[in-house]
Amino acid sequence: MIWYIGRRLLQMIPVFLGATLLIYVMAFYAGGDPIQAIMGDKPLSPAVQDQLRSQYNLDKPLIVQWLIYVGKVVRGDFGVGFNGRPIFEQIRDAFPVTFRLAIIAVVFETILGIVAGVISGLKKGTWIDTTLLMVSLLVIAVPTFVIGFVAQFTLGVKLGVVPVNVGRDASLQNLLLPGFVLGVVSFAYVLRLTRTSITEVATADHVRTATAKGLSRTGVISKHIMRNSLIPVVTFIGADLGSLMGGAIVTERIFNIHGIGSVLYQAINKSESPVIVSVVTIMVMIFLLTNLIVDLLYAVLDPRIRHAK
Amino acid sequence: MSISRRSMILGTGAAGTAALALSACGGGSDSGDGGSGGGSGDPVYANETEPQNPLIPTNTNEVGGGRIITSVFAGLVYYKADGTVENDVADSIESDDNQTWTIKIKDGQKFSDDSPVTAKSFVDAWNFGANTKNAQLSQSFFEPIEGFDKVSADKATGKETLSGLKVVDDLTFTVKLVSEQSDFPNRLGYSAYSPLPESFYDDTKSFGEKPVSNGPYMVDTWDHDQQIVLVPNDKYDGPRKAKNAGVTFTIYSSDDTMYGDLESGEVDVTDLIPTSALSSYQDTLGDRAVNDPGAVFQSFTIAQNDPNFSGEAGKLRRKAISRAINRKQICDKLFYGTRTPATDFIAPVIPGGGEKDIPGAEVLEFDEAEAKKLWEQAEKKQPFKGEFTLAYNADAPHKDWVDAVCNSIANTLGITAKGKPFPAFGDFREQITKRELKGAFRSGWQADYPSAYNFLGPLYSSAAADGKGSNDGDYKNPEFDDLLKEGLSAADENAAIEKYKAAEAILMEDLPAIPLWYQNTFGGFSENVSDVKYGWDTVPLYYAITK
After folding, report:
1. Residue A246: pLDDT above 50?
2. DSSP line for B336-377
3. pLDDT, mean of residues A299-306
4. Which residues on A lie below 8 Å from B138 (Cβ)?
5. Which residues of chain A have a CB within 8 Å of the CB of B128?
6. In this model, does residue B6 exceed pLDDT 70?
7. Higher pLDDT pick, A296 / B144
8. Which segments show compositional bias classed as Polar residues (chain B) (predicted)?
């Protein structure tokens, strides 16, 4: 088990290097000249432009810029942004907020999604099942920003029960609605995934055997159906935590939450490669870690899966 | 400077309003606890975008930082709401020849750390801003001062100083310019000309987070990307004394959220209305909605090196395109009256701007028959190749109006005209700077200081062409340059304006840029505040607001 975890952690090093290089190249070719973005339409003498370019290593070849960047990151120095603030500090301030938001979204999608999915799966073909499926389809079909704006307008502007602008005070309570908006699409996926899984397992031989042995309905569901059918759901939720952190851009903008999504958005606007790369790389790392945790959870859920080979 | 995108409106936030008889009722507040004029102890909440640079006056070139700099620093002069110039720190600014200026400052002025504001505070700050070594974004503002070429050289070490700046005594200094400039005093309210205390040079980094300043407010806290809290500065004793208990700027990443906050009374004063609310905000807010003439001029530029637009045929073609645009319809239908069709090249809040009697100005009127006729004349001389494109940056809300303008041109002239989006502002500017962009590209300008010259010189003079300024189309016309020069050395403002109007008549003929409309000052305020006035530059006069 230890060997397995160690191997997985070692695999992250090439992924980290590859991801940073790839993102560096993309950021470099996507945004145009960052110095132009800094100066706006004001004329800036070539002398000052050169000064700024060398200050941010923009005068060096792309691969050299990347090497300098990676070299510094390995030593724990993420560099300084165009606004003079250390990039590490920018990320450190924004990260907890997005993390809280993503956790709220995951908790919500997990609990509601699994409960609704189990009901749906066990009552397959009834009106409850149909209604839940319809709801989930509707949620998947409507884009997040529509759900976000409608929720904000009705609950915030018209009814005044939640703050319109969460940025001023990103407490757990104020993050509930944005968290709900962020997690609502995943909720629909979890519901459908759970339902499919449950219906498959519910007709399996071992379930019939368990029922025939005279086990109570609840016992059969919790011990024999749920445990087996949750594996794909857990996989999805694990992977989703990573995508939620990256996908929070839209939700964060709607509710004016200053999280990692808005840092990324602004950095892209300013073609600020070091910030973009730092944020995305951290995302990639989180993604890999959650995947590892999910893989380890398999073993807990299903004794047949063992990593110690 | 252009209105390239929301966060890039490089404007000065300086503005002023007559501190009317309010001082009679209880006097201006002279402390941070509770404003006067019936204000409560609550701060005024205002909209803001995260400043893109540390709060250093010479390094702030966008509106997010400009708002703060203008509120916390006092320059030699300030601008009243109508754009007229009044002394702030200055006692007098005088010159016999419009070239050597003697500036006296008021005695007894202090920075928030109690150090005195002296002539040296200005001279050192300007030298710092002008020196290439310090890579300050507003360096070009010191160009008119003698010796700029030395301090802005590539090899500047930070030690060189502007030879045109001389400290005479504690309260007096002289400025020698490279040429006669009658509007020089008008410039001095721009934030780049603010004074800096001695302590700035010891630690620019922490100064940029929390400046020691001499204006109506000082920075209390700056929570990055969340809010900036300003409290009244009791060391300030000038004409812009704060009439409230402070201003808290909430940083919004989306205009729509900001508008939602305005509707629910969470923000007191805004100078932005999201595109989605343009049609309804005046009904929603009633008499708390603001929509007045503004200081922003929008146009599109056609590069002089575009073969389709060269020579006599090019001139006719530009006129045809200008005549083919139904400006009024776009301003009414698309912008809901928050833009005003242009009749000249200078925004209407500026003295000498928004003039309707410039010779040749009929070229800005929509006239289908005339447009067709001009286009045919041009076709006879030299057929048009390819299609007409209008480039813009897609990271700001330009697509709708660009499409509308292109449709107007296409329908009138029967040619193919379409928008050419660039994903990011940096991309767009890079193409323009490299002079690789053919066809037309959007251009906009918000003056840095209220002066007609500032809408002409930086944009169309030969001196600003070829990458040396904002003349991105590289338009050159000696006759036009001469008229500008005469305007700058004119005896008084009216004489200067006559010269500028004559210069504009040349622009009407040549159309280096095709004027579209002036952007109004639009915004709104909540029920909790009164005395909300907007400056000539569209930014509210925060210090005058009572709550």
Report:
1. yes
2. TTSEEE-SSSS-TTSTT-S-S--TTGGGGS--HHHHHHHHHH
3. 71
4. 42
5. none
6. no
7. B144
8. 49-60
Residues in chain B with CB shorter than 8 Å from the CB of A87 are: none
Q: In 3-state terms, chain A is what percent helix, strand and coil (to 5)?
A: 75, 0, 20
Count of Cβ atoms closer than 10 Å to residue B214 Cβ: 29
CA dihedral for B179, B182, B183, B186, sign (positive or negative): positive
pLDDT of residue B33: 40
- Can you tell me the mean pLDDT for A97-110? 90
Handedness of CA A39, A44, A46, A47 (dihedral sign): negative
pLDDT tens-digit readout, B116-158: 999 999 999 999 999 998 989 889 899 899 999 899 888 888 8
Q: Which of A36, A41, A262 sits opposite B1 (nearest CB)?
A: A41
A301: burial class by Cβ within 10 Å (0-12, 13-18, 19+)? middle
Q: What is the pLDDT of residue B12?
A: 32
Name the token pair of B43.
Answer: 């701060």
A256/B62 touch (CB, cutoff 8 Å), yes or no: no
Q: Which one, of B215, B186, B240, B217, lies nearest residue B20 by Cα? A: B240
Nearest chain B residue to A264 by CA distance is B253
User: Are the beta carbons of B500 and B346 closer than 8 angstroms?
Assistant: yes
Nearest residue of chain A to residue B136 (CA atoms): A48
Q: What is the DSSP letter of A215?
A: -
- The pLDDT of residue B276: 87
User: Nearest-5° angle of CA B83, CA B51, CA B292?
Assistant: 30
Neighbours of B174 (CB within 10 A): 16
Least confident of B21-35, B261-275, B437-451: B21-35
Going by C-alpha positions, the residue among B538, B106, B24, B522 that lies closest to residue B273 is: B522
**Distance of CA B224 to CAs A85, A89, A91, A94, B221, Å?**
10, 10, 11, 10, 9
Q: Is the pLDDT of residue B3 over 80?
A: no
Q: Pick from B1, B2, B257: which is nearest to A254 by CB?
A: B257
Three-state DSSP string of A219-253 = HHHHHHHHHHHHHHHHHHHHHHHHHHHHHHHHHHH
> For helices B493-510 and B478-488, what crossing angle results, to 10°?
170
Phi, psi angles (nearest 5°) of residue B387? -130, 160
Nearest Cβ partner for A31 among B53, B264, B427: B427
Residue B6 burial by Cβ neighbours in a 10 Å radius (0-12, 13-18, 19+): middle
Confidence class of residue A307 from pLDDT cuts 50, 70 and 90? low
Please give the average per-residue pLDDT across B92-102, as a whole number. 92
Alpha-carbon span A235 to A229, nearest angstrom: 11
User: Distance between CA A286 and CA A288 in Å, rounded?
Assistant: 5
Bin B531: left if φ > 0, else alpha if -120 < ψ < 50, else beta: left
CA geometry: angle B219, B221, B227, nearest 5 deg = 105
Q: How many helices (H) and strands (E) does chain A have?
A: 13, 0
Exposed e or buried b for every residue in B286-301, given b needs 16+ CB within 10 A? Answer: eebbbbbbbbbbbbbb
Residues, chain A: 309
Which stretches within A56-86 are classed as H helix?
62-74
Residue B511's pLDDT is what? 92
pLDDT tens string B350-393: 888 888 889 988 999 999 999 999 999 999 998 988 889 999 98
Cβ(B309)–Cβ(B300) below 8 Å: no
Q: What number is the average pLDDT over the span A117-123?
A: 90
Nearest to A232 by CA among A92, A121, A73: A121
- pLDDT for the residue B17: 31
Which chain A residues contact residue B1 at CB under 8 A?
40-42
- Over residues B432-470, the pLDDT tens digits come to 888 888 889 999 888 888 889 989 988 999 988 887 788
